[in-house]
Specification:
Elements (H helix, E strand, L loop, with lengths): L1 H11 L46 H8 L4 H5 L4 H9 L10 H7 L20 H5 L16 H6 L8 H12 L9 H5 L9 H7 L8 H7 L4 H21 L5 E2 L2 E2 L6 H4 L24 H13 L4 H16 L4 H24 L4 H16 L6 H20 L6 H13 L9 H9 L8
Antiparallel strand pairs: 1-2
Helix pairs in contact: 8-12, 12-14, 12-16, 14-15, 14-17, 14-18, 15-16, 17-18, 17-20, 18-19
The protein binds heme C (HEC) (4 copies).
Length: 439
C-alpha cells in the first residue's frame, strides 16, 4: 500500500524546490501591492546601482526600460496581431481584457487580492515573479531580515532553480491554469520557445549572482539551470499529453505537444528518415526537451541512462503505435517518473568544467550524426550549446572565445527561421562546436 501511494504522488506531484512547493505568485493568498510600492528611488528605482547595498537597487529602472515583461508584454495585447487572435477565437472581450491572454501577458491575481495601488497596466510586474508583497514589503528592508524570513513571508524563491523553472514555464509554456493551445496558435499566436538559462540571461537580468548573492541564496550554476529547465519543461509537456482534459482537442489530441514541423511543411518535401521517428507518416511527439535530458542523464546519472533512453523510445513507439491512447499515456507517465527521480540529483549537482566539456562534445556528436534533424531539437541543442559555452567563457575556461562566438553565431543563424530550416546546414554548424570542447 505504501509503495502504491508513493507511486501515486510521484505521478501527480511537482518537483520540489528547496523551499517545498510554494504557490506561484498568482496563486498565493496575500495582497499584491503594485509596482509603485517598489519603484521609489530609495528602494528599487535608483538610477545607478548602490555600491553599499547587497542588491543593485536599480531593478525598477532595468525592468521598466529594458525588460519585455514591463510594458511590451501587456502592450502587445493592444496590437493588430492580438486583435486578430481575439477575433479569430471569437473572444467576448478584447485581448487586453480577456483572462486567457492577461493571465500570461500581465499579472492577473484575483480582484480581492489586488491592493489599492495595484495596476493591471503594469504588465508582468515585480510581484508576478517575486510574489505578493503584502506580508514582506515592510519586513524585507529590515537590516536583519534573512532571505528565509522573506520567503516565509511570501517572497517567491526565485533563487531556487526548481521554483524558478516552474515560475517561468507557467507563462513560457503554460500550466494547469493557463496554456497556449494549438487553436490559439492557429488563431495567430506565435510558437513559444523557452530555455531557462538563455532566457534568464536575456531577460535582461537585474541581479548579480556574486559572492554575496551566493551567501544569501545558494549557488548559481547556469548548466544546472539549463538541466532543470529541460526537466520541468518535459514534465509539463508530458502532463498535457496524458491529461484527459488538456491533452484533448475534441476529436484529436492537443497538437501543441507534437513536433510542429511534422505537420507544417510542404508535401513535396519528404523528410522522414529512420532516425526521425519509428514510422513514416506519423505525428511525432515533440522530444526537444527529452533529447536534451538524454544527454543530461548520461552525464549526471550514467547508470540510469539506458533505462531513461528506453522509456523515451517506448513513448515514441506508443505514440506511433497501434495501441490504445491509454498505453501512450502510461508511457508518458513512465518518462515523467524517471524525470522526478532525476530532479533532486540535478538540484544537488555542481557542474564542473569536465561536465560541461563532456556535454558540449556529446551535443556536437549527436548533432553531427543527425540526431537533431527536427527543428525543435536543433533549436534546443543550439541554446544548450550557447548556455554551456557562455558558462565556460565566464569561468575563463575557453581557449578561444572569438572562435566560440563565431561558431555560436553560425549555429544560431542556421536556426534563425524555422520555415527555412535546413538540417544539413545546422549539422555542419554544430559539428564545428566539437573542437571547442577541447580543454
Ligand atoms: C501560457 C501563457 C500565454 C498565454 C495564455 C497567451 N500568451 Fe501570448 N505570448 C506568451 C509568450 C511567453 C510570448 C512570447 C513568445 C516568445 O517570444 O518566445 C507570447 C507572445 C505573444 C505575441 C507576440 C508578441 C511579440 O512581441 O511579437 C502576441 C501578439 C500574443 N502573445 C498575444 C496573445 C493573445 C492575444 C493571447 C490570448 C488569446 C495570448 N497571447 C495568450 C504567453 C502567452
Ligand atoms: C520575469 C520575472 C521577474 C520580474 C518581472 C522581476 N524580477 Fe526581480 N528577479 C527575478 C529573478 C529570476 C531574480 C534572480 C533570482 C533571485 O535573486 O532571487 C530576481 C532578483 C531580484 C532581486 C534580488 C537580487 C539579489 O541580489 O538578491 C531584486 C531586489 C529584484 N529581483 C527586484 C525586482 C523588482 C523591484 C522588480 C520590478 C521592478 C522585479 N524584480 C521584477 C525575476 C523577476
Ligand atoms: C506572468 C507571465 C510570465 C512570467 C512568470 C515570465 N514571463 Fe517571460 N515573458 C512573458 C511574456 C508574455 C513575454 C512576451 C513579451 C513580448 O514579446 O511581448 C515574455 C518575454 C520574455 C523574454 C523575451 C523573449 C523574446 O523572444 O524576446 C524573455 C527573455 C523572458 N520572457 C524570460 C523570462 C524568464 C527568465 C522568466 C522567469 C524568471 C519569465 N520570463 C517569466 C510572460 C512571462
Ligand atoms: C498533427 C498535425 C499538426 C501539428 C503537430 C501542428 N499543427 Fe498547426 N495546424 C495543423 C492543421 C491541420 C492546421 C489547420 C490548417 C488550415 O486551417 O489550413 C494547423 C494550423 C496552424 C496554424 C494556422 C495556419 C493557418 O493556415 O491558418 C498555425 C500558426 C499553427 N498551426 C502552428 C502550429 C505550431 C506552432 C505547432 C507546434 C507547437 C503546430 N501547429 C503543430 C496541424 C498541425
Amino acid at each position: 500500500m505504501k509503495t502504491f501511494l508513493f507511486a501515486l504522488t510521484a505521478a501527480l506531484g511537482f518537483a520540489t524546490s528547496s523551499w517545498g512547493n510554494p504557490p506561484l505568485p498568482y496563486e498565493a493568498k496575500a495582497k499584491h501591492m503594485g509596482v509603485v510600492t517598489c519603484q521609489s528611488s530609495l528602494c528599487h528605482g535608483s538610477i545607478v546601482s548602490w555600491k553599499s547595498s547587497n542588491v543593485l537597487q536599480n531593478e525598477y529602472v532595468t525592468w521598466s526600460r529594458a525588460d519585455p515583461h514591463a510594458l511590451k508584454a501587456a502592450q502587445v495585447l493592444m496590437n493588430d496581431q492580438s486583435r486578430k487572435i481575439a477575433a479569430n477565437l471569437r473572444l467576448k472581450e478584447p485581448a487586453h481584457q480577456a483572462k486567457i491572454c492577461v493571465d500570461c501577458h500581465g499579472h492577473n491575481p484575483p480582484k480581492e487580492r489586488q491592493g489599492e495601488q495595484f495596476s493591471a497596466a503594469d504588465g508582468v510586474s515585480c510581484e508576478a515573479c517575486h510574489g505578493p508583497a503584502e506580508k514582506w514589503l515592510s519586513t524585507h528592508v529590515q537590516p536583519n531580515a534573512t532571505h528565509a524570513d522573506n520567503v516565509r513571508n511570501g517572497l517567491y524563491p526565485t533563487g531556487d532553480p526548481v521554483a524558478l523553472a516552474r515560475l517561468c514555464l507557467s507563462c513560457h509554456f503554460g500550466n494547469k491554469d493557463k496554456f497556449v493551445t494549438h487553436r490559439i496558435m492557429g488563431a495567430g499566436h506565435p510558437r513559444i520557445t523557452f530555455e531557462l538559462d538563455t532566457f534568464t540571461l536575456t531577460q535582461p537580468p537585474h541581479f548579480v549572482p556574486d559572492a554575496d548573492w551566493v551567501k544569501r541564496k545558494g549557488s548559481w550554476d547556469s548548466v544546472r539551470l539549463w538541466a532543470i529547465g529541460q526537466a520541468l519543461a518535459a514534465q509539463e509537456q508530458l502532463d498535457v499529453f496524458s491529461d484527459s482534459k488538456r491533452g484533448r482537442d475534441r476529436l484529436f489530441p492537443e497538437l501543441v505537444v507534437f513536433d510542429c514541423h511534422a505537420c507544417h511543411h510542404p508535401m513535396s518535401d519528404k523528410r522522414w528518415r529512420p532516425a526521425t521517428g519509428p514510422q513514416p507518416g506519423v505525428v511525432r511527439f515533440n522530444d526537444a526537451n527529452l533529447i536534451m535530458l538524454r544527454q543530461i542523464v548520461r552525464r549526471v546519472d550514467p547508470s540510469a541512462s539506458a533505462d531513461f533512453n528506453e522509456r523515451v523510445r517506448k513513448l515514441h513507439e506508443a505514440v506511433a503505435g497501434d495501441g490504445e491512447a491509454a498505453a501512450a499515456h502510461r508511457a508518458a507517465r513512465a518518462v515523467r517518473e524517471a524525470i522526478d527521480l532525476l530532479i533532486p540529483k540535478l538540484a544537488k549537482r555542481s557542474f564542473n568544467d569536465a561536465d560541461m566539456r563532456a556535454i558540449l562534445a556529446s551535443l556536437a556528436e549527436e548533432g553531427q550524426s543527425g540526431g537533431y534533424r527536427d527543428f525543435a531539437g536543433a533549436e534546443q541543442s543550439a541554446m544548450a550549446v550557447g548556455s554551456v559555452l557562455n558558462y565556460l567563457a565566464r569561468r575563463g575556461a575557453l581557449k578561444d572565445v572569438k572562435a566560440a562566438n563565431a561558431a555560436l553565431d553560425r549555429l544560431f543563424k542556421s536556426i534563425a527561421d524555422d520555415e527555412k530550416y535546413q538540417p544539413e546546414r545546422f549539422q555542419a554548424a554544430i559539428s564545428a562546436v566539437r573542437q571547442l570542447a577541447q580543454p
